[in-house]
Amino acid sequence: xxxxxxxxxxxxxxxxxxxxxxxxxxxxxxxxxxxxxxxxxxxxxxxxxxxxxxxxxxxxxxxxxxxxxxxxxxxxxxxxxxxxxxxxxxxxxxxxxxxxxxxxxxxxxxxxxxxxxxxxxxxxxxxxxxxxxxxxxxxxxxxxxxxxxxxxxxxxxxxxxxxxxxxxxxxxxxxxxxxxxxxxxxxxxxxxxxxxxxxxxxxxxxxxxxxxxxxxxxxxxxxxxxxxxxxxxxxxxxxxxxxxxxxxxxxxxxxxxxxxxxxxxxxxxxxxxxxxxxxxxxxxxxxxxxxxxxxxxxxxxxxxxxxxxxxxxxxxxxxxxxxxxxxxxxxxxxxxxxxxxxxxxxxxxxxxxxxxxxxxxxxxxxxxxxxxxxxxxxxxxxxxxxxxxxxxxxxxxxxxxxxxxxxxxxxxxxxxxxxxxxxxxxxxxxxxxxxxxxxx
Length: 440
Known about the structure:
The protein is mainly beta and 440 residues long. It has helices at residues 2-20, 67-74, and strands at 97-108, 111-112, 117-121, 134-136, 141-142, 147-157, 161-170, 173-181, 186-194, 200-205, 213-234, 242-265, 271-295, 301-329, 332-337, 348-370, 373-387, 397-398, 425-439. The protein has one domain (78-439). It is elongated.
């Protein structure tokens, strides 16, 4: 045991003496050619002392970071596929310019519309138990399915920021009916609720068998379009290949209408024409923020994009209600305001501004045929929290005793019904997109 301790003590003493030895008097000058930039010297032993350089000898240049290492720290460079090298904030990547177009196939959420036109078997004319054989619209919830449209988008990336623009237009959809006959085998009617009897379902006969002929036409329309413009800024990529923050301006325009007109002609030559029209117009203006995530670059192959935009702003809501009736009796033609459903306090134009929230979601599966041409298939949704819709302002509750063409010809008088009141609903349009894009 004592021999082991003695051996260890001698070993430590020897190491201490070696560490205490001084450096050589001087080292030979380092030749200039021997200095290599970027060379990393091997680590010196722990006991080594600093080298002494003679005055006038060239000093070794400190090694510098490679461009690849520097780019990895700053994220200032994109790979050949247009993808950033790291998850840190980086300069704009991807295509420098793009221009694309999508074919859209969208669905609206339904609009409430009461029955405007009926056909009733002729045998039940003037019967309290009359039941319709057909109604227009066929359902009180009018929906528009498979609405075609087009959407365009364009953008440009600069060094630090980018800009983009997109706009869409959906075709106007018309739900329409037009009927005319002499009252057989069915007669034409316009239904309403009789306020004088507590809301009993009643019908104005437009044609009647063996009495007079008539015609009726009704149309329900809807059209939607909009656009937005945004500034873009690259952000942390997380698990994506690219992530861009978006901030910009959004506009959405929705116009709808419900109209019905009828004409009856009697054997004496007298005629009665009745017109009702309800129109609504919604214009949303607001700011929006969002993000765009991209998987896959500009190289040939599959990719994926997800874009979300949320906006707040004001929606200007306008309702226009028009009604009139014209009677030709014995060659004397008189016209007064008010149809069957559009009359009294509801006539005129009404407008207001409401705060609204907007959400736009777009998902795309992409495929780059080449680095400059891309095709895509996706799903898109637009939500607006407050809109007015034309069908909501068609109030079927009227008092026929105050209307000259339903009370036997006595002059029309004012009535407390129908009345105007604001009705707002949320609005959703969603569907499929099929697109192509040029990029470089």
